[in-house]
Amino acid sequence: MKVLSDLTEAAARLNAADRVLVIGCSGGGKSTLSQTICERLNLPYVSMDRDFYWLPGWIKRARAEERSLIAAKVAEERWLMDGSGQSSFDLRLPRTNLILWVRMPRWLCLWGALSRAVMGYGRTRPEMAEGCPERIDGEFLRYIWNFERMTVPKILAGLAQHGPDVPFLQLKSRGEMRQLLDLLGRPA
């Protein structure tokens, strides 16, 4: 796997990329980062939750339909996809130019998810499917708490299997996220 550690190099690759994947734990800031990058680089924003996973009322879309929608979207020339679902890595990674992995500490992800739920409770976020108002429950909090132990090994395996040559940058602090955005500059 091609791990990038230099933010200047990562920003240059990001500026040149047509297809970017942003992954990470819920509450870590990946959607906010994704939307800001899309504004600055004029990339179409794709939310896995909004565009593929959920139907109104928090109903999970049928897997075959979900995969068909993902396959059609990844065939497009330009996009930034916000979402960590490893079940579609086989479709997404071969078309991805760069991966940004928002890998914040567990406490920060929990804080982000809890504050987002309190501030937006009952309203639907722009990156969520219509009819799926903000909520929080024990299952979601356990997912965040166990993300590093349960999900990261699956992400690493998926990256190795389906995207071994795709460069990726891990962003481990809000400061690194701000530095990357500063290197990208402002929208034209």
UniProtKB/TrEMBL annotation:
Gene3D superfamilies: P-loop containing nucleotide triphosphate hydrolases. It comes from the Bacteria. The keyword Acetylation does not apply. InterPro entries: Cytidylate_Kinase-2, P-loop_NTPase. Keywords: Kinase, Transferase. GO terms for molecular function: kinase activity. The keyword Ligase does not apply. This is Adenylate kinase. The lineage of its organism: Bacteria, Pseudomonadati, Pseudomonadota, Alphaproteobacteria, Hyphomicrobiales.
